[in-house]
Specification:
The chain is about 65% helix and about 0% strand. By secondary structure, it is mainly alpha-helical. The chain starts with a helix and ends with a helix.
Amino acid sequence: MLGLLVVFAVIHSGGAALRTRAEAKIGARAWRLIFAALSIPSAVVVIAYFLAHRYDGIRIWNLQGVPGMVPSIWVVTAISFLFLYPATYNLLEIPAVLKPQVRLYATGIIRISRHPQAVGQILWCMSHALWIGSSFMLVTCAGLIAHHLFAVWHGDRRLKARFGEAFDRLQAETSVMPFAAVIDGRQQLVLSELVRPAQLGIAIAVGVFWWAHRYIPRGGMAFLHSRLGELLN
């Protein structure tokens, strides 16, 4: 699992590091399509392997019968998706329908954390580690969190190189730790900025994932019996 996460991190973060030079040579849309063509399949393999092996190793704890655990897990997971896929971003740029651009965001969820996706990943790991409780899950969480902590440093470094003093001002006015800038007075929450049409899509996605969880065992077995699953195992 750690090996697959490292491969994904190299492809994903490596592609982000190459973005400026690649866009200068082949254009923003072409690079986004190449980047997606590499990142998405590698992410699918990681997710499929995780689903097939999530209970492997030692079962360290089992809290699945604790009253209130199911709604608690889903509430934390839903919140994690709001951070993982913040509505400040233009979703049409992901498939290059619109020309992908690098921007500095200073509103919405960025007021809470400058790196919302890292926060969302940590929340997702917390909720799923509580639910699954296996040593495999803890190793997966360690790898995912390590990658996102690296991405915090890597992302700031790339934005500094691109935007210079403008990023310095953003960095001074925001925080990586959620709500830290709000608490110390550098930032103020504007609730209206947190309501975006894209959040409806996120809410629908959470509902779809909740419904699709019943098919995880079947999907895991299908992956294990696939040629790729047999190769990785």
